[in-house]
Every structure is written in C-alpha cells, then in structure tokens.
Amino acid sequence: MKKFEPVIVAFCCHYCAYTAADMAGSQRLPYPANVKIIRVPCSGKVDALHIIKAFENGADGVYVAGCLEGDCHFKNGNEKAARRIDYVKKYLEEIGIESERLTMVTMSAGMGYRFAQTATEITEKIRKLGPSPIKTAITQ
Amino acid sequence: MQNTNRPQTNNDKVLVVGGGLGGIRTALDLAEAEKNVVLVDNDYTIGGLMTQLDRTFPTNNCDLCTLAPHLSESGRQEYIELMSMTSVRSITGEKGNFTVSVRTEPRYINEDKCTACGACHEQFPECVRFTPGLDHRAPTCMRYPQAIPQAYSIDLDKCEDIEALVNCCPAGAINPDDMAINREIKCVSVVLSPGADLFDPSKLDYLGYSTLPDVVTSLEYERILSASGPTNGKLLRPSNGTQPKKVAWIQCIGSRGIQKGAGSYCSNACCMFALKEAIVTKERFQEDIETTIFYMDMRTFGKDYELYLERAKDDYGVRFLRSRPHSILQQLGSDALTITYTKDDSTEQHIEDFDMIVLSTGFKTSEQSRQLALNAGIELNDSHFPVTDGFNPVATTKPGIYVAGTFESPKDIPDTMVQASAAACMAGSDLPAGKKTARKENNITTERDVSGEELKVGVFICDCGDNIGGVIDVDTLAKRIQDLDNVAIAISEGHGCSRVSMEHIRKTIEEENLNRVVIGACSPRTHLSKFQELIRKAGLNKYLVEIANIRDQATWVHSNQPENATSKAYDLIKMAIASVTKAQPLVDQSLPINKNILVVGGGISGMTSALRLADQGFQVYLAEKSDTLGGVAKNIFKTLEGDNVQTFIADLTNKVENHEYIQVITRAIIVDHSGMPGMFKTGMQVGPQMFYRQIEHGVTVLATGAIPNPTKEYALESCNAVMTQLETQKVVNQTPDIVKKWDNVVMIQCVGSRIPDNPNCSRICCQTAIKNSLAILEINPDARIFVLYRDMRTYGFQEEYYQKAREKGVIFVRYSKDSPPSVNPAGNQVEVTFTDVILGQKVTVTADNLCLSTGLVADNDSSEELAMIFKLPRTADGYFLEDHVKLRPVDMPVPGFFVAGTAHSPKLIKESISQANAVAARAQTMLARDSINLGAAAARVDSKLCASCLICVRACPFDVPFINADGYSEIDPAKCHGCGMCVSECPAKAIQLMQFEDDKILAQLEEIFDKVNA
Q: What domains sit in chain B, N to C, each tagged with a CATH number?
C-alpha cells in the first residue's frame, strides 16, 4: 500500500498567518507539502460548514490560523473562530471523527518560523492519527 | 480656489537626478502627492545598481521582482517626466528658481516605435552587457527583463554594419541619425541621487584581481549567481568553468582606510552583502561548498540583521575568520588560489587554498557625481561625499538642493529608501503651496460584460527566474493545466510582472477573449493589485483574477523536493482556477478622506513628522504620553559630529508648540481606535484627570520611540562607579571636574544587546562609546580608556571617529560572547577583569568609571498595548514591523499607518529625522487624494433568504447590520469592514462576503480532494 500522506487544509487569515506563510517562504523554511492554504480575510470568516465540508471531501486534518489573542484586525474574529472550532470539535466526535484532526492556532504576521513549525507539527500529528475515517469510507 | 488648469508658469517641478532605486522612490513619492517631477538618468534604462543584484538581504528575495512594480509605477505616472541617457551640465539659480541645463545622448532607437521584441539583440547576439567586469559588449543593449524605458539602446561605436542593424528591426525603430539634444529645465528644487561607484581593486596587485580570473568583486559574484547573468545563474569559476568547492569573501576592500586609495569610512552594506552571498551559495549547494568570510568586524547593525548573521553561522554553516588576509596568490601550475593570513590571537601564518575569492568592495563617489556636485554648487567632504546638515542628512550646503542614497553616504537599500522619501518631503515642501496639477483623465477601456459567456480561463505561470523555474518545470506544468476544464489557455510567462509579460498577458486576454485569469506567481499580498489593474486594462472587471501563490507556498518552501513542489503548485493553480470560475464582477466602494493626522509620540521623530505635515497645511494632533515633548533625546547633549542636540530640541519644540496647525496633547494615553484608513477615530485619556477625548483622522504616525535598556548587569545598580553611557554623557557635559579625576575608564559594549534575551544589535552604542571617549579625553587627556567590544560597528563616517579615538590612545580590546568581562566593585572604584586576546591572558583594570553601553530596547509596555489597539504587527523584540523591510521601510502593513524613529528599530537622531521626513512624504501620497478606495470586500444580504434573526447584528464587531424598514438585515457596504463574521454565523446563509464568497471557498476545497474521490 502507498505510504499514507495526509491532506491538510489550513484556513489562513490574510493579516497574520497568510503573511507568516509568505515570510516562511521568503526565509526558505521548509514545511510539509501536505498543507494547502486557503486565504480568508479573518479566521472568524471560517464557516463551520466549510470545515465539515473539508472533512466530507476527504481532508485528514484541518486547521484555522488566526491572529494572536487581542491582535485581530476585526476586534475579536479570532476569539469567535476559537469558540466555533471548539463547537465543531464536539460535533466531529459525535459523527465519529477524532476531534484532534481539527485545530485552531494563532500567530502574528512576523512569525514565519512559527508558521513552518505549526504546519510541520500538525502534519506529523495527523500522520500518526492515520487517514480520516471518512476518507477510509470513501476509498473502500 | 478650484483651479483645474495647469499653472502657466513652468516653475512647479522638482528635478530628480539619478534613476536608481532612491531616485525612483523620490520621484514616485512626489508624483503620488500630485507634484510634478522630472527624473533624469544618464543610463539607457532606470533602475541603477539594484537591477544587478540577484537577491537582497535579509529576505533573499529576487530583486527584479520587488523592484519591477516600482519601475512600471514610475513609467506610468503622469506626473513624472522621465529623461534617460541624460546628464546634468549645470545648475544655476537658487531655491524656488533653479535653471538646470541637461544633455540627452542619442539612443538611436525611437522609443515610441520600439516594441522591445529583441530582434536586433538576437541578430547581434555577441551577448548583452549586464555587468561591470564580466562583460561582453553588444551593440544593442537592454539591461534586464523589466526595464524602463522598455526600448533597447544602441552603442553605435561598437556596430560594424549599421545598415544591417537598421534593417533587422521589424518596427523600423532604429535611427542611426539620432542626435544629442541640449535642454533647460526650470525647477524649484533638486534632489541628487546619482548613487555611488564601487571601489576598483585592480591596482592592488597583492589581491590578484587584475590577473586571477577567479578573484571577483562582490557585485560580479552577484551577477554570476543571477539568473539573468553571464552564466545564466550557474556558479562557475571564470577561469575553467567548473563549479567551485571553496569560496572565500574578503571584507573591507576599499573601505576603512585599509588599502591604498581606500575610503577612510566604512561602506556600511558590505557585511550584509557578503553574508547574503554566502547564505545563497550555501542554500544552493549545501554540503558541496564551503564558504568562509574574512572580516575585521561583522557590522550587522540593522533591524534584525544580527539574526541574519546568527542564521549564517548556525543554520548555514558559514565560516567566519577574523583576519585581514595578507595576499592572494596562485602557484604556477595550480588553479587554486592561496590566501595567506594570520589570526588575531597569534602571529602564526596560515595558508589556505580556495577556488574562488570574492572581494567585498566598498562604495566611493564617482568622478561624474563629483562633477555633478561641483555643477550644483554643493560642498563635498574629504571623502568626496556631500556635506550635509547634522540633523538633516538630506539637506546640502545649498538650500533647495537635497541628496539621498549612496551619494549621501554609503548605505543599504532600506536606508536609501528612507532618505529618498525624506528628500521627496524636503524638495516637495519647496514647491509653492497649493500648486497641484490636475490629474489627467485616464482613457480607460470600457469594462466588458462577461455575464452569460462560457467560462474561458487563461492561466499564466511565472518562472520568476530561478525562484519558480529553478525548482519546477513551468512549461510542463502549463501543459498539464491546459487540459483542465474551463481552461482556454495555459502558458509559461517568464517574469509575469515584467512589462513584456504584462503586455503579452493583456494581449492574450483580448485575443483569446478570456473572461477569467489565473496567475501562477508570488503572493497576492504584493502583486494582486498589479494584476487586477492589468486585466482591467484588458477590459475585464478587476475581480476576475486570482493569484496562485506557487512561489512563496511551493517552490520556496519545497526547493529541495521538486516533485512535491510541482504537485503542490499544480494543486494551488487548480484551486485558483476553481475559485476564479466562481468570481463575479464587483464594484469598489469609495469615501471622502479625512486629512487630519494623528502623530503618536512627541520625541524628535514625532515632532519632525508633525512639523513637516503641518507646514503643508494639514491639521496635526500630536499625542505624547509624558508631560513634555522631546523624548529620550532630552538626555543627549551632543552628536558624534559635535552638533548640539539640546538647542536643536528646544528649537523644534518651540516650532511645534507654536504652529497654527499642530495641536499638542500631552499626558495622552491612547485607549481605543476604530474606523478605516482615511477615516480613523482614536480615543485617548488626557491630562491629570484622564478626560476622554476622541480624534478623527485619516493618517496615523507612530513615533513612540524606544527606551534605554533597563539592564542590571555588571553591578550597575549597586556600585556608584558603574554607569550607563547616557549617565556618563551627563557627567561629561555637566560636571567635567569629576571627569578630571578619572584615571581609568572602562567601557563595555553590547551590554544587554546581542544576547539570547535581546538578540539584536542596538546600532547606536559603538558610536556613543567613541563619542564619550573623545569627550573624556578632551577634558582629561591623561585618562586611560579601555573599550571592551565584540565588533566595533562604527559604520559610514563614524569609522573616522573610531580611527581618531585609536590615534588618541583609546585601547580597544575584543571580548567574545562566551567570556565576557567580570566586574568586582572596590569602594568608589570597580575592578574589571577581561581577557586580552593578543596577550592571551587576563588583565584587571581598576576603573574610576565603568561605563556600560546598554543600548535601546523597544518600549514593550506601550508598544504592546498600541499594537493591540491599532492592530499592528511587531517584531519578536517588540519594535513595530514595517510593510516591507527593504522597499517600504516606513509604511506599516495596515494602510494609513506609518512608523518613524526608534519605534521602528534603534537608530541615530539624524536617522530618526530622515525617517520622520520620509513618513511625511509617504503620508502626503495618501492625503493628496480626496477619496479613499475601500475595495469591494463587503458583506451583501440576500433579502429573500434573510429571516431577520438578528444574529448578524450581534456578530458584527462594528455594529453595521441593522433590520431595515422592510424587515430585512441591511449592511452598508461603505461601513462594512469586510471581515465576514456575519457570513459565517448567518444560519440561513443569507449573507455573502464579496471576493470571498462561499462558493469560491467550497470550490477550492473540492479541488484539493479530487484525487481522493477519483
């Protein structure tokens, strides 16, 4: 069987994590190619439905990257996102998906290193968890 | 008065001499503030030295990509008249009324006819002249792909068959009868930024530069590394075309008075230049190559530069040898280059072989620039750089004539950009007030209605030189993309941001009748607006383009895994295609701009910015936390050059406090902030009773400063004989009698700087130590002064003062980070023990004054809070983070915010003033407009779906949605900030955020996983 390569979706806030990802690039900091970034104007824009849709389509892991606490460009979008993530995690458990597959992280625009580190850590975590139950169901 | 006609007098212009990066920035700042500029450059295309650099520190970006947008900005600005191949013959008259006589050399090509097709260059392919030293001369010449003017130029003297050359041009643009033209330009002020030359090492026979082909200058090495260079980016030894295994850099060639003919100053940028070249070399060849830097002091004093040095050491394994090599020789029959050197801890001679040696040559003014200075009537110093005002480095000895960039003094790109903007501020304020040229109507193509059309996506993939093309095969990728649904055309596009490519993309859109565009390129953060503008020119709504960030997110990150990079780039482009097919034409919102300015911080920087902007007629509110103006500089008496800081501050404070357009608000603490660029509201608590006051403004300037490092090291608190440089300075200036009693003075550098807790260099302390040492010796010539240092970082002309201190007997002893000096208080004195590297043993000095160079740290208490209130990013050490470290050093990433002075990073007073002036220029580019574009990202409610549940009303952080008379939620697009929080909360999915619509996000998600479903 082919080695399991997780597919991970990162919803990145334009003002922090997306910029941090650019910075990681310009500093040539490597991180796993498994992570695919979707740019959003604020982590608070990330819909519960989009997260579920990602899993439904076969994502092995999803993370939402917003600004550091208190740094949200729109006052409190990151806090709202964090609350929503907690809620979606509970829902995931109910439908039989490990809640560890979904994470909320925060960083500032200057943290290129943290972006690369987070992407690496989350990829490794998901790799250990193995393919998402939904993906297994689809491929069977 | 509303005068839309152009003023009849010609005298409403600023002349900018020199089209390098600095000159372009000056011209752009003036033009964006709607002031007329004539930009002259004696080269055939503008861009200057920077166009020859492969990558720039500290981001290791490709320069062409960062510079290109500036160049084409420069080309299209209607306020800029560009005169290339033009030199200044004389400048007469005075401020407000200069007459400049210029001569334009013949280009032999009609710029209007030339399409830059390259046919002439192809048929006369002896090669293109790109480089000093590594050149092959071609009759036709265009320096780089993004060049402006885009036309080629011809060196007729080198052409043997003129007729054949003329006939080879399909556009008939070659005109061998072209003639030189002399003209006179009237202008009110002049900015000189002709740049500098690099030191020519060919006369120094012991370095072998003129005889050994593998000894190259740092700029030549840069050209060898460059994708557009003579070896197409392959690192090859010029002697035999093999790849070198060992490369060495030798620093300070032509600087610090080391060699015959060298400048007595430090050239400022070479240490970082060498570091960058070594890092890029290691990055590309990793274990296959060894890199060694021979240096005297590593001068990485800029913002976060110390971290770059640490990375070179720790992450890339660059080897550092503190040594001045004796010679470079090549033994007969050998192709190795032998360096003979001694280390500073012994007299033993070492011999080591290298394959290539790079000489880090410093800056010097060119003969041409000296002549220009003479023609302009400005004074030069002994090193042939302009004499400038001690507190305003862009002001020359002649009013109305300003200087910027490396012509002013040796410096790197960020400092050049700051000075360029500062010069724009000064030169612009010489223009008569209110003289603004009416903007010409742009004849914009009408927007095509694409509704109902079948989807036709055009995909253009950049190779960005080696940045993308060096990792993945762009042509093959384009072929794979071509097969995807809805894709009408997919092609590789070289440097997509170059003029030629942009024009090609525009034509392709029109010819193929494309209705959606995807660019596989770099970050939308930097380039989206450029491509939006491009497709708008091609008749498409600007929101019908997406950028797939395949450089920053794929090729840069997975440069060692081409397969992964390729499949990720493919996925990213597919996602962008999916997203753009759902994109709809949108209309931008705009609102009138509030032209008032809030300056936070009343130190020298804040006061300077306030004064410049108020002088231009803008209302300025200057909010200062403490009860007086002046900031940290109130504790400084004189500068290194001897200028009186106290009188300067008193004068500045007086002007600020009495200015009709400046309102000073002391004891002001910022407590809240809202609104958007051009229409901010900031609340503060003011005065002893903390009254709340709100100010409405369009621009915010952060000049909150830094604070002296509150370190407690080396018995600073417990022993009276231990003090900081600031305290010593006070003693020297106020109670010289005490100084007379000092027999021994020890200064310790880098106290609390360049350590794990505060890794960066504080920049100012080395020159402060020199300044105070010289002042102590002035009072007490018999005092023995020891300066314990790690690297002496007396950059630029400070080096001359360092030499002077050595001549006067100040003893400089180097210590290493691992064995710092130890201190033992002994009554009113203090015993300082340190290792003398030359003696190889410990030495103890009983000092009457131990003076600690504690440097500056960010004022975390206030900057953290302000960053949170204003939503601005900071560096890891707490300084405000600018938008682009090289090209936008005073602009913050949030539009409408600017940063000046030590709030940005530690710097000297005159450097802070330059930044403050630069901020004033940058702010004016925004304030010149009467309205502000808010973009199209606003939430839109579908009333048919709205259930009036009030969730959006509660979710909005800005209280924008309300239930209207019809009973549905309504969101005013002009008030909406575009965060999308209401969208994600709306249970009926009745709200969509334009530009980030749900179907676009879902479409991207589908694309990531189609492999799984297939």
A: 11-105+180-196+365-439 (3.50.50.60), 106-179 (3.30.70.20), 198-364 (3.50.50.60), 457-583 (3.40.50), 597-705+859-933 (3.50.50.60), 709-855 (3.50.50.60), 937-994 (3.30.70.20)
